[in-house]
Amino acid sequence: MRAVLARVHTYVLGGTRVDPAPLLQSVDPLHFHGRLIGHDPATRLPVWTPTPFDFSQETVEMKREAHTKSCYNKRRSNAIPLDRSVPDVRTGECHHQWYYHVPHIPASSTSATFSRAMSTLHLSSDMQPTSPTPIRLPTTSVIFVFYNEPLSPLLRAIYSVLNRTPPHLLHEIILVDDGSDAEAPWLAEGAQFERHLQLLPKARLARLTGRNGLMRARNVGASLATAETITYLDAHIEVGPGWLEPLMGRIAEGMRDGINRVVVPGIDSIDADTFNYTAGGIDILGHTWGLGQTGIEHSSPRNGVEPIRSPIMAGGLLSLSRKYMDLLGFYDPEMELWGGEEMEISFRIWLCGGTLEFMPCSRVGHVFRSNKYWQGQVYKVPGEVIMKNKNRAAFWMDEYAPLARLSVGNEGGVGDMKHYENIKARLQCKPFRWYLQNVYPQLLKSADILIKTGGSKMSDPFQASGFVRNNHTGTCLDHLHLKSDGSAFGAYPCHYTHGSQSMVYTDSHMILSGEQLLDGCLTRSADNLLRKYHCTDDLEADQTWTMERNGNNDRAVTMVGEGKCLTVVAEPEQDNKSAFSLRLLECGGELAPLQSWEWESLRDS
C-alpha cells in the first residue's frame, strides 16, 4: 500500500489538545465520549455553535442559495446543533437484543468502568444463555471520505459517531479529504476544521494530493486503519442509537465460524431541505442488468432482527473485517472518481468467499441530496468515467456481461484487468451463474427469458441493439427514466451514452429498453401512444414489432406494429420529459422521414 499512502500530503492527528479526564467525567448515555467533545479546554465552551435563523422567513430564492453546490440546505444544517439527538427508529425487538461486550481495556481504567456500565449483552441465535464462551465484539476504524463537504454536516457526522458508539468498540475515526478545492467551505473558513479536529478524541485527518476518487481515497483510509474491522460511512450521515453493535456482533459470529461477513445498516432519510430524520430509505438492494440499483422483494420482514442477505449494497455504508478487506484486494484502484464501485465490490464479496447482509437493528440516517432547489452538479463525474467503472464491474458477470454493456455502453475501453484476474485466481472465485442461482435468482429468471426470447447465446443475444436514432430529428428512443407500468415511452435528443437510450430487438420481435429489459417493453396503446409495460404474454399482441429495411442504409428500418409505423412527432411528451413524442401513425408519405430509425447495431439476418 505504499503507493496508496504516497498520496497523503497532510496528516493531522485529532485529540492532541484533549485532556481525557474531563471527557470521561462528562460521559452519559447520550454522549458516550463525553459532553465536552469539541469544547475549548480553557473556557469549556464549544468552539462551534449553531447560527440561528427564522426559517418561517426563508424564501425560495434563499433555499436556492442555501442548496447551491451541495443539493442540501446548508443554512438549515448550520442552525442545528452538532450533537442533536435523532429518533430511535429501531423496532421493539431490536431493543431486546443483547450483545456481549468483552472490551480490551485495563480493568482499572475509568473507560473500562464506564464501558461495563453502558454495555449490553447479545446472544446470537445459535447460542444459549448458558453458553460459557461469550462473543467478543471487535473494534472498528470508522472511515469518512469527503470532497468539498460543508463543515457542519461533516462535523455532525463525526459527533454522532462519538456520541453513540461505545468507547471500547470505536478505535479511531479516519477522515480522508480527497483533495478538496481551495474554495471548499471548510477550507475557506481557514484552519477551523483542523482546530476543531484537535478537540475530538480518536479522530485523524489525511489530506490527499489532488482528486483521487472515492475508491482510491477509501483505500487510503483502509491502509491507515488499525482496528480489527473497517466501517465506511458517508460524510453527511448521523448514526442512530445502538447502530454499531449489530454490525460488530454479526462480524464476530463470522469470525467465530470462519465466515467472511460484510454487513450494512438500514439507511434512513434525512431530508435535504429540513434535515428532519425519517425512518426508512434503503435496506436490501438488487440491480438491473444495466447495473442500476433497484429494490427487491424478500420473504423476511425488514423490520425484524435477523440478518437478511442482500445481492448488493448501496455503497456508502458498510462494515467488514480488516483482514477480509486485505484478502479481497481493497477497492479497484483503476476505477475513477465515483460510480459502479458498489456493484463491483458486492459481486466480488459474494463470488470470492464472503456474504453481504443487511442488519435491520442498525440504523444510520443519510442526507439524500435533492435537485429541487439547485440543479447543478455537486461532483462532476463524466459519463465516460461511470461507463468505464461499470464495465470494469461487469468483469465478474462472465458470459452475462453483454447484458450490462447493452445499457452501459462499451466505448473507451476498461483499462488493465490484471487486478481482477489475480484476485479471481488467488481466491478461486465462483462463476457469476452461481451468484444468479444462489444469491439473486430473480435476475436469473429474467436472463433465461431473455435467452429464450433473444438469441441462442449470451454473447450475441439480440437481432439489434444500442441507440435507435431518427436522423431527421436527431432524437433517439428513450424510456425517459420513467419506471412505472404504463408510463410514456418517448424520444429525446440523442446523447449516445446508452443508459435510457439503449434498446434491444429480440428474436421474438419485442423492442425492450436495454436498461430495464423485461420491465421496459415498447407497447402500443389504444390511443396510438407508445407506453412502457412489463413484457408479458397478456400483452404480446401489442408488444411485437416487424422491422422492414429502409433505403440504402443497412442499419435503417421502419418499425411496424398492426400495420402502422412508429413515428416521432414534435409534440411535448405527456410528462413533459421531452419536446418530442412517439405515435403509431399510418406509414409512408410525408411522415416517412419521421418513421425511419437507424439502429446502432443490426444483424444482417
From TrEMBL:
Keyword Manganese: yes
Predominant location category: Golgi
Pfam families attached to this UniProt entry: Glycos_transf_2 (PF00535), Ricin_B_lectin (PF00652)
Coiled coil (UniProt feature): none
Localization per Swiss-Prot or TrEMBL: Golgi apparatus membrane
Topology term for the membrane: Single-pass type II membrane protein
GO molecular function ontology, one term from the record: metal ion binding
Cited InterPro entries: Glyco_trans_2-like, Nucleotide-diphossugar_trans, Ricin_B-like_lectins, Ricin_B_lectin
Cofactor: Mn(2+)
Record pathway: Protein modification; protein glycosylation
Source domain of life: Eukaryota
UniProt protein name: Protein-UDP acetylgalactosaminyltransferase 7
Origin species: Chondrus crispus (Carrageen Irish moss)
Organism phylogeny: Eukaryota, Rhodophyta, Florideophyceae, Rhodymeniophycidae, Gigartinales
